[in-house]
Amino acid sequence: MKTWRRSSLGLALVIAIVLVLSACGKKENNDGASSSPSASPTASQAASPEASADSKIEALKGKKIAVVMQFNQGTLSAQYLEGVKSQVEKFGGKLTVLASENDLNKMVTNLDNAINQKFDGILLDHGNADALTAGVNKALAAGIPVVAFDSGLSIEGVTSIAQNDQLLADKSLEALAKDAGGKGNIVKVWVAGFPPMESRQITYKAFQAKYPEIKEIAQFGDASKAQLDAQTQMEAVLKKYPEKGSITAVWAAWDEFAKGVTNAIKQAGRTEIKVYGIDLNDEDLALIQDPESPWVASAGADFTSIGQVQVRYLYQKLYGDKAEASVQIEPAFVSRELLPTDKKVTVADLGEYVPGWGKSEQGVTDYLTQLEQSVGK
């Protein structure tokens, strides 16, 4: 009897153990089934590539963008800023302008402020590598993308946009040489210390070597109060060379300089002297169209388009694309002969007379086009 009871108890214990193990096995199988790839909710409900792209585009809306400007005076700066503002608005972003009043120290401080305020992206307008490199590296370390215009920067991860400054200089100087018959006395208005000016100087030196019978008789230029200073300096040069024919032409490496020397020449009644400039805006075009004005031609790019292009490359970076390291804006050449005589032309309609003006598609991508369309709805 005792033996049977012990056997019964042993059998019951074995059955109990088997049942427990069986239950555990079922639980493990259920757990395993719930985590198998075929049954995974994550995999079965994974977003399609199209949905993923849509979410990335949607994430671009509402970005906070800072534009840190060295210059904030003159019509070119106004046109550039208009291009930046309009493109940021089309992308659904919010723009903050940090102007530096041609003070590099203030520009460095403004850049640092933009980083500390954690903007989503930073645009730089002018400045130079010596002043900006440390701040730009700080921005990149903080994960803030940077796109610079005419800043002379060469930093990995930064897209640097510039006008083709050597081509700008070449177009204006070659026109001067052609009109002057390859000889004469000229005045150069230029200033050192700015990346675009330094690039234009390279072409000017080549021009001097190419045309040895074109002599430089005076040179000046000051970026502070540029137009007024150029007018005052040109007045002094005209007094030094009072005879008609003693000065053939003036080459002005910036339109603010060109306006100043044009005023001085007109007031002195020396309109036999021709002015060739760089950069274009509505005020410049009015002077070039005026048959009594000595300013007869200028090379330039549409600064509104430049601002738009710069914003596009910044948003490429915000999207996650590896944008180009260097972008060149191709210039146009505008002479009085190209413009109508019966109406005033503005940069807005200059494209009717100068092919390619104001219609840059640089930096445009399919997803940025979709973003514009989405914001515009």
Automatic annotation (TrEMBL):
Residues 65-321 form the Periplasmic binding protein domain. GO terms for molecular function: carbohydrate binding. Residues 30-51 are annotated as: Disordered. GO terms for cellular component: outer membrane-bounded periplasmic space. Residues 33-51 have a biased composition (Low complexity). SUPFAM superfamilies: Periplasmic binding protein-like I. It is found in: Cell envelope. InterPro entries: Bact_Solute-Bind_Prot2, Peripla_BP_I, SBP_2_dom. It comes from the Bacteria. Belongs to the bacterial solute-binding protein 2 family. This is LacI family transcriptional regulator. It comes from Cohnella faecalis.
